Amino acid sequence: MILVLRSLSKTFETGQHRVQALSDVTLEVAEGECMAIVGESGSGKSTLANVVLGLYPPTSGEITFEGEPLPAQRTLAHRQAIQLVQQNPASALNPRRSVAASLRLALDVHGIGEPRKRRARVEELLGDVGLDPSYATRAPAALSGGQRQRVAIARALACESRLVVLDEPTSALDVLVQAQVLRLLDELRTKRNLTYLFITHDLAVVRNIATRVAVFQKGRMVEIGPTETIFSAPSHSYTRSLISAVPVVTPEEFAMRERLGGRS
C-alpha cells in the first residue's frame, strides 16, 4: 500500500468549542488506484486531504507513505512526492507568472533535471496534458478554466509526484470540460502509475474515474468498496441517500461524452 491511515482522528478547538472533524479513520490506498473520498459538506473529506498533505497535524493516529511514517513536519521530498491539484484553477496559479514560470518553478525547487534542459521539460509537460508548447508564454488570465486546470495538473506531474490529492478538481468546470479533464486524469494515472486521492461531493464524477470509493459522514468512514459495488449494492443508508441524489444520465449524454475528443 502506498498510503495507510491508522485510527486517524482530527479535532479542532476554538475557545470552548471542539469539533471532531475526523474520527478513528483507517484507510489503505494501493499504488496506482484512484481512491475517491465522498460525502456532503462537513463530512471530513477535505480535512482528511489536508492531514494527508501535512497542512493539518492529526490529533491522533498514524499515516504511512510508501511504508514509512509521515512526520507532522513534511520534508521537501515528501512535498515533492505528494502533490495537490486544487478545486479552483483560477486561484491555483500565480497570476503574475507565465505558464512556463509556474512549471519551471516546480522543477527548480525540487532540483528535477538539468537546469539547461528544464525549458524543454516544460514543453513536454504541456504536451502531456494536451496543451501546445506555445501556451508556455501565456499568463493564467489568458487561459480558459479547463486550460488552467491542465496546467495545474502539469505542475503536479513536474514534481514527479507519486500520490496526487485531487480536491474537487472539476467542480469549477462546465460539464463538457469536466469530462475532458477526467479523461486526461485517467489516462495519466494509467500511463504513469499515479495514485489519486480524489476528494469530491459529486458521485456522478466518482462513477467515471474511481476504482474504489470511501464514503464519509460527520467525520467517520461509513462505507468503502469497489466503485461498481458502491453504486450497485450500497450497504449504508447514507450511501444510498447520496446515490439517490445523483442526476439520471441519459443514453444521449453518455454518447456525447464518448464522442468528446477535443480539448478545452
UniProtKB/TrEMBL annotation:
Topology term for the membrane: Peripheral membrane protein
Biological processes, Gene Ontology terms: peptide transport; transmembrane transport
Domain ABC transporter: from-to ranges: 3-243
Keyword Lipoprotein: no
Subcellular location: Cell inner membrane
GO (cellular component) term, any one: plasma membrane
InterPro entries, sorted: AAA+_ATPase, ABC_transp_ATP-bind, ABC_transporter-like_ATP-bd, ABC_transporter-like_CS, Oligopep_ABC_C, P-loop_NTPase
Family: Belongs to the ABC transporter superfamily.
Stated name of the protein: ABC transporter ATP-binding protein
Naturally occurring in which organism (per UniProt): Rubellimicrobium roseum
Lineage: Bacteria, Pseudomonadati, Pseudomonadota, Alphaproteobacteria, Rhodobacterales
